[in-house]
Write a structure and sequence with these properties.
A 3-stranded antiparallel sheet has the order 1-7-6. The chain has one domain. By secondary structure, it is of the alpha+beta class. The chain has 8 helices and 12 strands.
């Protein structure tokens, strides 16, 4: 059980946050506002929460747990999902809390949270933005998924990869938007999806699935 501390510059003025722990994240949740930013770099897919069975969207960054194939020199592609940016930080009614035991705080060479003037530094401002993105976006994500399910647009995706070392990997529990089902919708429904922005998100998600092949190529090249 994490022990939370309320973030403040008096107690945490020298605290640093690092991105090195991204290397152990193979999947990160995203919300609809992130789809267009994430799609050029990551495969966006849907999965179910293991406890509730509820769908949520996320980006695939590795093919096995604790593996991020996209991290190079502790850095991800141009877009870093809000779920990674806010790791170790939580929103409470009283402000921002932190889990001091989270690995993001373990690197003494990380970025400072507060400037010498005591104001939030760039790293903390990014965290604040990420927390806001998730706070607003989680309900939007639930609403989007409810609309997709109401039109029966989500379907399981079969992902199996073969590698030069003879191993094979199968990714289970992932879902995508069905283009066949999408294109079969009545015109008035498709128009509603277009006007709401859902259609743009659907094409961004389905187009991003191609990045799974990129992950396969990276893993094969590292063998």
């Amino acid at each position: 059980m994490p022990i939370w501390e309320m973030l403040n510059r008096q107690d945490h003025g020298s605290l640093r946050v690092s991105r090195k722990s991204d290397a152990q994240r193979h999947f990160a949740q995203i919300v609809p506002a992130e789809f267009l930013q994430a799609a050029p770099y990551y495969a966006i897919l849907f999965t179910k929460h293991p406890d509730t069975g509820a769908f949520y969207a996320g980006v695939v960054m590795g093919l096995e747990p604790d593996e991020n194939l996209l991290v190079v020199d502790d850095t991800l592609p141009d877009y870093r999902p809000a779920d990674l940016e806010r790791r170790g930080f939580f929103t409470t009614p009283d402000g921002i809390a932190i889990d001091r035991d989270d690995p993001v705080f373990a690197d003494p060479a990380g970025q400072t949270l507060f400037g010498i003037d005591g104001e939030p530094a760039l790293a903390l401002r990014r965290v604040q933005q990420a927390l806001h993105t998730l706070e607003v976006g989680l309900s939007e994500s639930d609403a989007l998924i409810a609309r997709l399910l109401s039109h029966r647009l989500l379907e399981p995706i079969d992902v199996k990869m073969e590698f030069d070392d003879g191993r094979s990997l199968r990714l289970d529990g992932l879902y995508t938007i069905s283009l066949d089902a999408l294109h079969a919708l009545p015109d008035e429904v498709a128009l509603d999806l277009f006007r709401s922005g859902d259609l743009q998100l659907a094409y961004a998600q389905t187009g991003s699935v191609r990045h799974l092949r990129t992950l396969g190529r990276i893993r094969n090249a590292r063998l």
